[in-house]
Design goal:
6 strands; 10 helices; four-stranded parallel sheet; alpha/beta; about 10% strand; two-stranded parallel ribbon; Rossmann fold; about 40% helix
Length: about 290
């Protein structure tokens, strides 16, 4: 079996060989967003990429093209942005929830139509978005026999670590996976004049270490391995290609449940977005 794991890099014979060996598709969900002055923008994308690539290498399967856009600005994101960015440009690849979830259903359709038995979606961006992707996946499961699992990466190690944003948890992962994307010498830049302020930097970033990052990643991979061992089956089912109309029907069901979308809500512990903030209009989005 070829050692290549990326759908985009496989020839047809290689694709079918890998799929026959293990009919699993992994989807990395990332985003480009501020993670302080100490990190490049793609932190969430890099860790999702690695977890999917390494899972396919160790446990079998194929990795779908990375989606480096994510739900942002809407709902609980708005007061968070006002707090950690103020009125600075966000410099991120954020998308509205209804656009992302609609597209996500069509991604699942492509996996179903390609014949995969299991889809494992790993989001490097967390905070609540994963719940909406799970709801979309659940509704898609009503028209597909494909097993679908959606996790934000902190959920993979919830028994051991607490996730954060550009703090010791996330920066540790980067120090292990992509040390070239971290510059801890800039940890105090947020206090400098003209530096854009905190820029979403975690307060305990200096407690990060590559050793801790390795432990987080290995525990994450162990979780994925157990998920596959307990739930994946290679038993093939007779399957018809899903039409666009079927996906649109699923999306309408999803829209009917928009009162449940976490990305349209503000958490109880959050203060309202200031009335004069550029982010205020995104706090309540009509879908």
């Amino acid at each position: 079996m070829t050692h290549k794991t990326r759908w985009a890099e496989l020839f047809p014979d290689e694709f079918l060989e890998r799929q026959t060996q293990k009919s699993i598709i992994y989807l990395p969900l990332g985003i480009c967003e501020p993670h302080g002055h100490i990190s490049t923008f793609g932190l969430d994308t890099f860790k999702a990429d690695y977890l999917c690539d390494e899972s396919a290498r160790r446990f079998g399967g194929i990795v779908a093209p990375t989606l480096a856009y994510q739900i942002h600005e809407a709902g609980y994101h708005a007061p968070w942005l006002a707090e950690v960015l103020g009125e600075q440009p966000a410099l991120m690849t954020g998308m509205p929830p209804h656009v992302m979830l609609h597209f996500f259903l069509y991604q699942l359709r492509s996996f179903h139509n390609a014949g995969f038995n299991t889809a494992i979606i790993i989001s490097g961006h967390s905070g609540g978005n994963q719940h909406d992707f799970r709801l979309a996946a659940k509704l898609f499961g009503e028209v597909s026999d494909m097993k679908i699992w959606v996790f934000a990466d902190p959920e993979l190690v919830a028994d051991f670590y607490e996730g954060d944003h550009a703090g010791q948890y996330e920066i540790s992962q980067s120090l292990y996976l992509r040390p070239d994307t971290i510059d801890l010498s800039k940890v105090n830049r947020m206090y400098e004049s003209g530096s854009l302020g905190r820029f979403a930097q975690g307060e305990d970033a200096l407690e990060a270490s590559a050793e801790k990052g390795k432990d987080i990643i290995e525990k994450s991979l162990a979780f994925i391995e157990q998920l596959i061992l307990k739930n994946h089956t290679e038993e093939k089912q007779a399957r018809k290609i899903l039409s666009y109309e079927v996906v649109e029907m699923v999306f309408e069901k999803l829209r009917e449940r928009r009162s449940e979308w976490v990305t349209l809500q503000k958490y109880d512990f959050q203060n309202p977005t200031p009335e004069d903030s550029q982010w205020k209009e995104f706090e309540t989005v009509k879908v």
